[in-house]
Amino acid sequence: MAGRATPLVLTLASGSPRRRALLEALGFPLRVVPPRVEEAGEDLPQDPRELALALARRKGGEVPGEWVLAADTVVDLDGRVLGKPRDRVENHLFLRLLSGRTHQVHTAIYLRTPQDLVVEVHTTRVRFRNLSQEEIAWYVQSGEGLDKAGGYGAQGLGMALLEGIEGDFYTVVGLPVARVFVLLWERGFRP
Ligand SMILES: Cc1cn([C@H]2C[C@H](O)[C@@H](COP(=O)(O)OP(=O)(O)OP(=O)(O)O)O2)c(=O)[nH]c1=O
């Protein structure tokens, strides 16, 4: 119809319910297309930040659309990547490693627009309390950490494990949402 622009839709190349909820909370019209990518492999970088960037690119590059957003979150304990735990035993191990220490959470974002492509990585430092074996067992049996990088969710029961956070909280839970908001806003995509 003359004079009526097609409403913009942001294609979210992610199966993460967290990412979806954050963008929906801001009112962005979304189309969710989970990418089917291998998140492991010999061809991926070892460096945690580079790994997050490579995976975000891989996810976003898979999905067609005019406005496409993808992200990847990596937990980095002194250079060692802690991915999603394979099972409860590994989740237990991860929490023992994280206990009483500070780690970094890197979230890379990939935003493809009709004008350009932005790929960048954001980092937040998270410090865990000293956790007892009983506390770790309590958390692991909840199952909350199993689908999350590092084996915990700072937005859920995992809040009880934290001593402090330095940086953007939303970077920890999977999307530096204020930065995404700015990138979209600057390009004329407003919720
Ligand atoms: C550290 C941490 C991670 N996470 C989540 C965010 C991400 O969803 C997940 C890391 O895995 P990702 O591979 O980044 O994302 P995903 O597999 O859930 O979704 P997709 O690849 O389809 O986009 O861990 C939390 O929800 N809370 C936390 O505190």
From TrEMBL:
Reaction(s) the record says it catalyses = dTTP + H2O = dTMP + diphosphate + H(+); UTP + H2O = UMP + diphosphate + H(+)
E.C. no: 3.6.1.9
Major location category of this protein: cytoplasm
KW Ribosomal protein (keyword) present:
no
The feature of type site (Important for substrate specificity) is located at: 18, 73, 155
Query: What is its subcellular localisation?
Result: Cytoplasm
The record's listing under Pfam families reads:
Maf
The protein's UniProt keywords, in alphabetical order, are: Cytoplasm, Hydrolase, Nucleotide metabolism
Locate the transmembrane regions by residue number. none
Q: Which cofactor does it need?
A: a divalent metal cation
**Taxonomic superkingdom:** Bacteria
The residues responsible for catalysis, as annotated, are 72 (proton acceptor)
Concerning its family, UniProt says:
Belongs to the Maf family. YhdE subfamily.
Any idea what this protein is called?
A: dTTP/UTP pyrophosphatase
Report the source organism: Thermus brevis
